[in-house]
Amino acid sequence: xxxxxxxxxxxxxxxxxxxxxxxxxxxxxxxxxxxxxxxxxxxxxxxxxxxxxxxxxxxxxxxxxxxxxxxxxxxxxxxxxxxxxxxxxxxxxxxxxxxxxxxxxxxxxxxxxxxxxxxxxxxxxxxxxxxxxxxxxxxxxxxxxxxxxxxxxxxxxxxxxxxxxxxxxxxxxxxxxxxxxxxxxxxxxxxxxxxxxxxxxxxxxxxxxxxxxxxxxxxxxxxxxxxxxxxxxxxxxxxxxxxxxxxxxxxxxxxxxxxxxxxxxxxxxxxxx
Length: 273
What we know:
Elements: E1 4-7, E2 13-15, E3 21-26, E4 32-39, E5 45-53, E6 55-63, H1 70-81, E7 88-92, E8 98-104, E9 119-127, E10 132-134, E11 164-166, E12 170-175, E13 189-203, E14 208-216, E15 219-223, E16 226-229, E17 232-233, E18 248-266, E19 270-271
Antiparallel strand pairs: 1-2, 1-7, 3-6, 4-5, 6-9, 7-8, 8-9, 8-10, 10-19, 11-18, 12-18, 13-14, 13-15, 13-18, 15-16, 16-17
């Protein structure tokens, strides 16, 4: 297969091919469905629900060194790339629009005199989020200039996909993810700029309505359960409602504002496989 890109949380990026590390296997499976059931009576069980657990991704590669001394340097470089005290992102070069947030399990690395010929290393990458996510967010441009979007992502052809609006009381938001974006798990970032009294944000698709009962004269944000006024948390003046995004199209209504205003929704999207 082609190369794999590793991106650390500090922005340092590694192209494994350029480091003499040839990927043999990077094959993320489907979501890790975990089913529960309960015995009722004598015959069979009743399905009581399904959740998604951490995703275990098998990973296998060859590491090449020039001689038995260079293998020591390659070993250190390899362990540095896959250091897992903190999570990192991994990209498949065939679809750079998606990435997996992972940590690596312990990696074997033998000292063999013939290692310069290449040696197989196999271990697992663990994605606690359970799904791949988009490299871009909804506020990045949906055009050919941005590698954060690509094929197979459920994006309609020849349809404008704005995620920011000016002076619009009603607008539609597409969630092309494989899953709904629940505010308690994957909160979207809603930003309002302008003046308002009792600002109301309603997602009619999910029947959720958030109301902010104080005056707004600059910037208001809603991030999951947390309202912020001018970057200061203000939980007391909200009605404690949260806004989810259902799969597919969501219709929003905005009210309580005066004059010009801007609203935007910033989020990543999540995919199974």
